[in-house]
């Protein structure tokens, strides 16, 4: 089984709880990397403790994970999805590309914590490999766009 197939085997379990998972990922991102909060104008002035039950954070977490799920479901044929993600994050949000690595690293931690029986070591490795591919593809698009962020 390929890494993409492995990821897609676990992803439906995550999707069934997508808002909570997305929220946990964003909260951990802000906690572990406080400077990333500045990238999110809607949340940057709100203290971390107040974000725990913030409906907008849950919604944004859902948006992030749905985009990620759409990339996963392409099983490696994700160039259109990644290009759309890059375009909005380069031109509209002006998010530096290294933030994708940060959030995917956090996602791996949260998924492993929330789904320990599904996120076995081989499954963690598959997610890690897929995240690396996605981040590398994004970085290439950022370079091609001459991102100066």
Please give a structural write-up:
The protein is about 70% helix and about 0% strand. The chain is mainly α and about 150 residues long. The chain is globular, with a radius of gyration of 15 Å. The termini are far apart. The model has no long low-confidence stretch (mean pLDDT about 95).
Task: Write out key terms for the chains shown.
149 residues, mainly alpha, 7 helices, 0% strand, globular
The structural class is: mainly alpha
Which H/E pattern describes the elements? HHHHHHH
- Return the average pLDDT rounded to an integer: 95
* Straight-line N-to-C gap: 38 Å
Number of helices: 7
Oligomer: single chain
Helix content: over 70%
Main sheet makeup: none
Summarize the structure.
The chain has helices at 3-15, 18-32, 48-51, 55-72, 79-92, 98-114, 121-144. It has 149 residues and is mainly α. The N and C termini lie far apart (38 Å).
In terms of topology, how is this protein built?
Elements: H1 3-15, H2 18-32, H3 48-51, H4 55-72, H5 79-92, H6 98-114, H7 121-144
Helix pairs in contact: 1-4, 1-7, 2-4, 2-6, 5-7, 6-7
């Amino acid at each position: 089984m390929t890494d993409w197939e492995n990821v897609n085997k676990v992803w439906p379990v995550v999707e069934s709880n997508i808002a909570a998972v997305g929220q946990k990922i964003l909260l951990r991102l802000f906690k572990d990397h406080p400077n990333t909060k500045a990238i999110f104008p809607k949340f940057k002035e709100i203290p971390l403790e107040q974000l725990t039950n913030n409906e907008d954070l849950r919604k944004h977490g859902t948006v992030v994970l749905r985009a990620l799920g759409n990339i996963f479901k392409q099983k490696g044929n994700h160039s259109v999805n990644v290009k759309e993600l890059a375009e909005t994050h380069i031109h509209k949000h002006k998010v530096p590309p290294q933030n994708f690595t940060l959030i995917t690293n956090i996602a791996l931690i949260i998924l492993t914590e929330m789904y320990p029986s599904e996120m076995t070591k081989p499954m963690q490795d598959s997610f890690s490999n897929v995240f690396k591919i996605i981040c590398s593809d994004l970085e290439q698009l950022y370079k091609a766009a001459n991102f100066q962020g």
